[in-house]
Amino acid sequence: MGVTEWLGRCPLVAILRGVRPDEVEAVGDALVGAGIAILEVPLNSPEPFESVRRLAARFGDRALVGAGTVRRESEVAALAEAGGRVMVTPHADPALVRAARARGLVTMPGFLTPAEAFALLDAGADALKLFPAEAGGPPMLRALKAVLPAGTPLLPVGGVDAASLPAWRAAGAAGYGCGSSLYRPGDTPEVVLAKARALLAAL
């Protein structure tokens, strides 16, 4: 499935910053059980590639598993070797998009300006992550949609929570990257499940 199909299943991307390998499967069970289908382990988490490996092995085709905060081509290689299938970056680096596409990965690189967005799309990005989204808010996303190619999936990331989701949806977001509003280090699977249900209800 392409990124549009995954976002169609559930537009929330779970950003599990700080998750540990020994807890990641239970947290993943809670999220996938709630209906969330895209799981991202940022690379500034403890042993992130081991967490990716465990999630990918546990969920197979039931979830799109990958890594965020990817900044180097060596990390793209390690992500693919761990079984990850989606790469998310915090910044606009077309070379990383090309490297990830060469390995068959879905790419959701970060951007903040139109120039960055077009450069990433020219490199073959599947979707674009507006980050930090709270800097411009829904009006910025709406303006970007007017100039980017029709159908470009835009996902706000940064400060997205149940209260702000309706405004982002009205602005035309295709998906939503949710970090602390879904998971904080130390959250139990039960807490994560309750957060997931609250976000899904807000949609």
Short synopsis of the structure:
By secondary structure, the protein is an alpha/beta fold. The chain has a single domain, classed as Alpha-Beta Barrel (TIM Barrel).
Structure characterization notes:
With 203 residues, the chain is an alpha/beta fold. The protein has a single domain (3-202), classed as TIM Barrel (Alpha-Beta Barrel), CATH 3.20.20.70. It is built from nine helices and nine strands. The strands form two sheets. A six-stranded parallel β-sheet has the order 5-4-3-2-1-9, sandwiched between helices. It has a three-stranded parallel β-sheet with strand order 6-7-8, with helices on one face. Strand 2, helix 3 and strand 3 (64-68) form a beta-alpha-beta unit. Helix 2 (21-34) crosses helix 3 (48-59) and helix 7 (137-147) packs parallel to helix 8 (165-171). The longest helix has 14 residues, at 21-34. The chain is globular, with a radius of gyration of 15 Å.
Mean pLDDT: 97
Please write the string of helix (H) and strand (E) elements.
HEHEHEHEHEEHEHEHEH
The strand line-up of the biggest sheet is: 5-4-3-2-1-9
What count of helical segments does DSSP give? 9
What would the principal axes of the Cα set say about the shape? Answer: globular
Q: Give the strand tally.
A: 9
User: What class, by secondary structure content?
Assistant: alpha/beta
Q: Report on the biggest sheet.
A: 6 strands, parallel
Q: How many structural units, i.e. domains? A: 1
CATH topology: TIM Barrel
In percent, how much strand structure appears in the residues?
A: 15-25%
- The residue fraction in helices comes out at 40-55%
Distance from N terminus to C terminus (CA atoms, Å) equals 23 Å
Q: What top-tier CATH class fits best?
A: Alpha Beta
Q: Spell out the CATH superfamily.
A: Aldolase class I
Q: pLDDT under 50 segments (min length 5)?
A: none
Could you say what the CATH architecture is?
Alpha-Beta Barrel
Report the C-alpha radius of gyration, rounded. 15 Å
